[in-house]
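Work package 3, deliverable 3.1, input record:
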Amino acid sequence: DTGVSQNPRHKITKRGQNVTFRCDPISEHNRLYWYRQTLGQGPEFLTYFQNEAQLEKSRLLSDRFSAERPKGSFSTLEIQRTEQGDSAMYLCASRTDGVPEAFFGQGTRLTVV
Amino acid sequence: DAKTTQPNSMESNEEEPVHLPCNHSTISGTDYIHWYRQLPSQGPEYVIHGLTSNVNNRMASLAIAEDRKSSTLILHRATLRDAAVYYCILSQLAGGTSYGKLTFGQGTILTVHP
């Protein structure tokens, strides 16, 4: 297993465009988390899934953000009508029940110009 | 989520021990203490966790105060590769099976000098 994989690693988009990121968790990890991190700050929780069910969403997650995890495997995070304030590193993590360790991907860096 | 307080930054010399403190005065009885670190341009990685007793693993040791209101992450011999942001996080074990989401603060930036 190669760990949590995120694609793309970098994305530059124009303001107002839609973007979609993908996260492939470690196989058989039933819990998947999305975080956003801006420069100099710790990661901020956005949302998490247990299998295919989205169980919690942060108030940070505006209506322009949507996440899915069909079939409880990979997950996608879509941002519609991007704004410059959306520029950040988007991190995905996965873990399995009973194990404290969450494994993070290397993130997708979004730049909105 | 219970809050943690860490120094903004610390410095160390290579091959010396490093003690990274964390205060969590509002910790509840079911909160586990987790430490993660984030190397430059990487996602966070798990370091260690504990509940009440001190813990050791290949990366570090975790010393937990008797009243659990503070803890210390100990790197026994710092290397240049240990330069990172270290996060102290409280997380509950829900239903005895799953740890809750991780809520990160700003962490401690550790600089290691050669």
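The CA atoms of residues 64 and 71 of chain B lie 4 Å apart.
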